[in-house]
Amino acid sequence: MGERKIFAGPKVRRIRNGLGLTQSAMAEALGISPSYLNLIERNQRPLTVQLLLKLSSVYKVDLEELREGSGSSLNQLREIFADPLLAGELPGDQELVEVAEAAPNAASGIIKLYRAYSEQASRLSDLTSLTAGPGQMPLAGARLPADEVRDVLERRSAYFPELEAAAEAFLTRFGEVRDLPAAFKEWLGAERGISVRILPVHVMPDLRRRFDRHSMRLFVSERLSPADQAHEVAIEVATLALRDAILMELEGLALLTPEAKRIARFELSRYGALALAMPYAPFLSAAQASRYDVDILRSRFGVSYAQAAARLVTLQRPGASGIPFFMMEIDAAGHRLRRAGAQGFPHSRFGGGCPKLNIHAAFLQPGQILAETVELPDGGRYLTVARTLEGPNVAFGERVRRTALLLGCEAATGEASVYGQVVTAQQPVLIGPACRLCERRGCLSRAEPPVTRPLGLDEMVTGLSSFDFQ
């Protein structure tokens, strides 16, 4: 059977325009005539195997993208126009074929717009079910895609073996290079033809990073610190270089919706960026030598406090693991932003909802590291280390985005860390998993009554807590 012919004229033309080349210049580089290139761009000639290889070697083109042609977009457009809302708009597929082949960017825009419309409708449906009034039956189990991803990631180990192996294999090409951020930028330029530019705030006011695939440029905001700028570049490298490993790990998460899979794919790319910037074996060795001092680690690897702390949570390779830390980040209003753990975040044992935790006190001492031991009602003790995190740089008049991050572990294992001295030097702070589940009497910080006890409604007696109970 003959090999399927590949017609990808619009994509070739887009590559040429993105590089600012004339047909003559590209034809000369590919070893063909300008007239033949013109026929290829108008889909009157297919791409030969030799031309595919030449495009790949000269312009670092992804062959998979060229092989896909317009078939993928065409199938998605067919699904969109099969929607009852649009079913009567087109008499046949010919117009869709023309859009997919002659205007692939417009086709991609239509697909993204319809996808956003569908997901918004799904979210509104979920919200309706969550806010069902008296007499109404909410849909069972309705969750937003972000909640689905959060629940899956919080309940499993924060260690992803396929990504770690792929990152280590990729890093071997750089040898003993000391400046990984510079090496990543060089790789993007040499292997993928992508240049990195730092854009001023007025040009990119509300984005951290944007990749323009037509001009092959990666834009990063000047709002970010140098460590965060390097992290955004590493995310792009991870997305491209660790793609197969990301997809393998994504498959293992067994997510239900396309939107949840996209959110998880981005989270896995962030994980891959950490694995690239802080290679597993060197980072574990440095962590053990410094007794898990986050400030020393972030300085040594040129990363932020949040990145170094997040990497500590992932050090759970069988036979070469670190302290089994868990992590939680909140904002000043107490909203939970993320949670992760070496064996999953310890919801049932630690909880993390007690207002007496030092993660809340950290907002009163920005930039200071607070370490203490806490004790739960069942006698379980944990070492907790809290510190505030600063968001992107802001202009005059803008409010600073400040969050707080808690790094925790069981007190016995925490003694091996530089923060472990508080385990024996201080009395533990008595906490609970959350006010609704805590039965500690006389707690000055109690914000809600426990669900396990009736309230003590004695007009003659007033206790220290706002919610006295029997």
Offer a concise description of the structure.
InterPro entries: Cro/C1-type_HTH, HTH_RamB, IrrE_HExxH, Lambda_DNA-bd_dom_sf, ScfR_C, TransReg_Diox_bact_type. The chain is α+β, with helices and mostly antiparallel strands and 470 residues long. 45% of the residues lie in helices and 12% in strands.
Structure in words:
By secondary structure, this protein is of the alpha+beta class. It folds into 4 domains: 9-105, 434 Repressor (Amino-terminal Domain), CATH 1.10.260; 149-277, Arc Repressor Mutant, subunit A; 326-433, no CATH class; 438-470, no CATH class. It is 45% helix and 12% strand. It contains 20 helices and 11 strands. It has helices at 9-19, 23-30, 34-41, 49-59, 63-68, 71-81, 94-102, 104-130, 145-155, 161-171, 180-192, 226-241, 243-253, 258-277, 280-289, 294-301, 305-313, 358-361, 411-414, 421-425; strands at residues 195-199, 209-212, 217-221, 316-317, 320-321, 326-331, 336-341, 370-375, 381-390, 402-410, 429-430. The strands form 3 sheets. The chain has a 6-stranded mixed sheet with strand order 7-6-10-9-8-11. Mean pLDDT is 85; it is low at 129-141. It comes from Rhizobium grahamii CCGE 502. Residues 12-66 form the HTH cro/C1-type domain. GO terms for molecular function: DNA binding; DNA-binding transcription factor activity. InterPro entries: Cro/C1-type_HTH (IPR001387), HTH_RamB (IPR026281), IrrE_HExxH (IPR010359), Lambda_DNA-bd_dom_sf (IPR010982), ScfR_C (IPR018653), TransReg_Diox_bact_type (IPR050807). It holds the Pfam family Peptidase_M78.
